[in-house]
Amino acid sequence: MKRTLALSLFLCAALAAQNKETVEKLAPYYPTPETIVDKMLKLGELKPGEKMFDLGSGDGRIVIMAAKKYKADSTGVEMDKDLVKQSNEGIQSSGIQKTAHIINGDIFKQDYSSANLVTVYLLPMSNDKIRPMLEQQLKKGTRIVSHDFEFKDWKAEKIENVDDDGEGRSHTLYLYRR
């Protein structure tokens, strides 16, 4: 009986430790319409050669447009391996491997100190979770564009409302500057 109890406790502790190692999902995958991607990058004033990061990059559409249309050095961070594969296929087929990259990993374990622009489409509670990391890492003047959800305790420099994206829904974009 003691052995069974000890083994059960050991297995529970091992499972708990393993679960702590899993990457926290900060938002469901919901693709941003191309028209909104373009508006996000315009609002963020992305310029050729600048460094941009898309946190929770999904299928890579923001990273791809940033590299292709805006000639930026763009990096996406995505935890879902299938979405990373899809992103890399899009980067390959667009021929932008030198300026577009996808990191398959945890948003919290990356260095964003080189960023000129950061884009996010995360849930409000996720924005709250990443805010301290961004405050610590981002240099003065870095721009942040958030799709649909604000960052609590930050004052948006500009808010852009898009009444209809052609798909029958409205969007709100928030521009912040550190």
Strand content: 15-25%
Mean pLDDT: 88
Count of DSSP strands: 7
Regions with little confidence, pLDDT below 50 for 5+ residues: 1-21
Helix-residue proportion: 25-40%
Q: For the report, how would you describe the main beta sheet?
A: 7 strands, mixed
Q: Which CATH class?
A: Alpha Beta
Structural category is alpha/beta
**Total DSSP helices:** 5
Radius of gyration: 19 Å
In spatial order, strands of the major sheet run 3-2-1-4-5-7-6
Query: What sequence of helices (H) and strands (E) makes up the elements?
Result: HHEHEHEEHEEE
CATH topology: Rossmann fold
Q: What is the terminal-to-terminal distance?
A: 59 Å
Write out the CATH superfamily name. Answer: Vaccinia Virus protein VP39
Q: Which architecture per CATH?
A: 3-Layer(aba) Sandwich
Any idea what the shape is? globular
Estimate nothing, just give the exact number of structural domains.
Answer: 1
In words, what does this structure look like?
It is a single chain. With 178 residues, this protein is an alpha/beta fold. The protein has one domain: Rossmann fold, CATH 3.40.50. The chain is 37% helix and 21% strand. It is built from 5 helices and 7 strands. It has helices at 2-21, 34-43, 61-68, 81-94, 124-137; strands at residues 51-55, 73-78, 100-104, 117-120, 143-147, 158-162, 171-177. Strands 3-2-1-4-5-7-6 form a 7-stranded mixed β-sheet, with helices on one face. β1, α3 and β2 form a beta-alpha-beta unit. α2 packs across α3. The radius of gyration is 19 Å and the shape is globular. The N and C termini lie far apart (59 Å).
